[in-house]
Amino acid sequence: MVHADVARTVDPTQGGSIDEDTTPAPLVSRPVSERVMVELAPADILPAVNTNVIFLNSCRPNGCVVRVGSANSINDTWPISSTRTLTPFHLGETQWQQVMSCMRDVFGPFGVQITDVDPGTANHFEIMIAGSPTDLGMSSGTGGVSPFNCQAEFISNSLVFDFSKVWGSDIEEICSTAAQEIAHSFRLDHVTDPSDPLTYFPFNGRRRFVDAQVQCGSDCVGGQGPFGQTCSGTNQQNHSCTCTGSQTQNSVQVIRNLFGAGTPTPPSVKILNPKTGDNVAPGFPVSADVTDDQMVTKAELRVDGQLVLSLATPPYAFNAPATLGNGTHTVEVTGYDTYGATAKATVQVIIGDPCTKPADCPLDTDTCIGGRCVPGPGVQGGLGTSCTAPDQCASGLCAGDASGQYCVEVCALGEGQCPDGFGCAEDGAGGGICFPGYDDGTGGCSSGGSGGAIGMGLGFAAILVLRRRKRS
Fold it and tell me: Is the dihedral of CA 15, 20, 4, 198 positive or negative?
């Protein structure tokens, strides 16, 4: 048996802000998101989610044939009166990729896979982002539709619709509607927070699931919610959540409980100026390029481990402290993305006269490379120390071949800048690194060097450099 939502008629051309007076709001400002209450067979009520794949189907090039049946992504069936064809996504490939990027951003905190490659008969959730509601015999004011049921934590192999033509060229609305519809298949209700995809209220910007207890509602008509709840609040848009009976829900917690936490890609950070080995004056400028596949929230400059400045928006241009004294200084820029993932880049610069030998350095454990004093082989994280990750090295560079991985420092090829026991090897990107046991032909790799450098012999495999930033 199939039960339809309470009928709502909305003019999709009417927008505007939320009505804040005490008069009950008879209409919502977005085209409606329908939920069809479906009965679940016992076999469909599973103890744990059976897939983490969400398939975005643009129905290109020829449309999607939707047949009569349950809301099933594998069979492409839906409770409609007859077989129909949903017309294709009406915008171009550039806009489709923008939708894909937005959905990956919105679902970044969760352990799901957003794909536009059809999983076929494998278990998956599916969002058809295409066509118009009239293609399936639905009201022209319907922006999207999803099955809904409170019996199970999710609807297995759910098929939902996001009617892209309703939204025109508005990528954010196409994206947030897709997120809303699939979230209904996870028992989530509409909410009154305009920044959450599960709202009917207008919002300027990208909607993301809110990690807080948020009031259910925003979809009331005539004082009632879609499933008969009594509405309240200053604009008569608050109601109890359909499945739980409570007033609030935390959509992030619900989705995370199903799929676990995601693993966002960290930003890419590159210090453009200065370069390692540059001779600079106190207060020198620092510029960096910080990018992310979703959004950068801030970039921080540290000099010698001390925070100097944090910038929320580009350009990421800083100035080092004017109080820095002579010697070698480590400049570090850290980028943060919207999910808290971080990446770092470092360079070492010189104020004053460059060193010419280790004895010129302030610490007995330092060595001199290219005019700058850096931690030597006898210091944890110093040159030649064993490492497995860039953050274990003072330089932010960990390099290795088949024999092992070591902390390395930048050097100029062919100039004999590396200390005894090391040679300047090509790093694969046109630069050089002081690598233990490498003979660069300048006499830098001699036995018995200071600090007990690690000898690796000659003729080893190609060197892999791990840098303290995302590789492109």
Answer: positive
